[in-house]
Specification:
This protein is of the alpha/beta class and 334 residues long. The chain has two domains: 4-127 and 321-333, 3-Layer(aba) Sandwich (Rossmann fold), CATH 3.40.50.720; 132-315, Dihydrodipicolinate Reductase, domain 2. 29% of the residues lie in helices and 25% in strands. It has a seven-stranded mixed beta sheet with strand order 3-4-2-1-5-6-7, with helices on both faces. A six-stranded mixed beta sheet has the order 11-8-12-15-14-13. β9 and β10 (208-209) form a beta hairpin. α1 crosses α8 and α3 crosses α8.
Length: 334
């Protein structure tokens, strides 16, 4: 059987990948859960009924695995990913450590699968969760009509920054209800996140933030360098999930009904779009779901061949874990 190493087993994304492997009937004995400085005897939940031993990443022999998924921080990935490459196993980078490497293709499963074949290092990267969420619904549309421009305004939950950020939201919310000061709980977001919206994700690079630059760069890497893209990102006071309004412009003329049909036929995407109160999908609706949900599809009359839509997903499961799993299957077939 294929042995699968998951680096970052205790991280949010790592745990979701383990859950996804369990849900897809991968035996726990075929999974190698890894964390740096992990004490002997440490375990992590594997599905609802089993636990997996967490092995110490330091000194781990990657030759024991057939494929490694790096669901850790980019700093840890940069340190240990070369060891997996040296072991000549297949590597999937979910950390962003190789996102700017021209020799490493970036894959959204179902959209640019063929790009796996141009990898020179047996390594592929997957884009940030929000980019997967934006691009997946456009897969068949891009194939038929050609997408040439994307403008997005995305709203990210605190889970992007892990447990500490989610705890900060919880702590601030509790203190507001009991009328306690929250200034000592503004460490990760630097401003109040509870009952607020923060139009900054990452540090600034000139006029845009690091995350906005990353989203633009990843969209171009997946769809091609000639793609025109503009991203606006903000944090919202939610624990899990991400939502985005996406405006897309195509090369060819299209019928909006055909756009809806193509989205509804895209594997891993669910269309729920009703012009009634509540006839759309929100962040609370998608927690724990592995599909990406699309609503509010409209013609964009401000551009020649434009349309817009609202898209939401569980950023940990649907965007990261599922895409990583699907890319892994593509690599193993290769």
């Amino acid at each position: 059987m294929v042995k699968i190493a998951v680096v970052g087993a205790n991280e949010n994304t790592g745990r979701e990948i383990l859950n996804f492997l369990s849900e897809n009937d991968v035996n726990v004995s075929d999974v190698l859960a890894l964390e740096p400085n992990s004490p002997m005897g440490t375990t992590v939940a594997y599905g609802e009924e089993e636990d997996a031993d967490v092995l110490n990443l330091d000194g781990f022999d990657f030759a024991k695995a057939d494929v490694a998924l790096f669901a850790c921080s980019s700093e840890i990935a940069k340190r240990y990913l070369p060891k997996a490459v040296q072991a000549k196993i297949k590597v999937i980078d979910c950390s962003g450590a190789t996102s700017t490497d021209s020799d490493v293709p970036m894959i959204v499963a179902g959209l640019n699968d063929e790009d796996i074949n141009r990898g020179q290092k047996n390594v592929v990267s997957i884009p940030s969760a929000i980019v997967t969420q934006i691009l997946k619904p456009l897969a068949k549309i891009n194939e038929k009509y050609g997408v040439k421009r994307i403008v997005t305004s995305a709203y990210l939950s605190t889970s992007v920054h892990g447990h500490e950020a989610m705890d900060e939201l919880f702590s601030q919310t509790r203190k507001i209800y009991i009328n306690a000061p929250i200034f000592d709980d503004e460490e990760i977001f630097k401003k109040q996140i509870a009952f607020n919206v923060l139009p900054q994700v990452g540090g600034f690079i000139g006029e845009e933030t690091e995350a906005e630059w990353q989203v633009n760069a990843e969209i171009k890497k997946v769809l091609g360098g000639n793609m025109k893209t503009h991203a606006n990102l903000a944090y919202v006071p939610a624990f899990i999930g991400a939502g985005a309004f996406v405006n897309a412009e195509t090369v060819k003329d299209f019928e909006l009904d055909d756009v809806k049909k193509l989205i509804s036929e895209t594997k891993g995407v669910t269309l729920f779009d009703k012009q009634v109160d509540g006839g759309y999908v929100s962040l609370n609706d998608v927690q724990g779901e592995s599909d990406i949900y699309v609503s509010r599809i409209r013609q964009d009359l401000s551009s020649e061949n434009g349309f817009s839509f609202w898209v939401v997903a569980d950023n940990l499961k649907a965007d990261c874990a599922k895409n990583a799993f699907d890319v892994m299957r593509l690599m193993l077939k290769k």
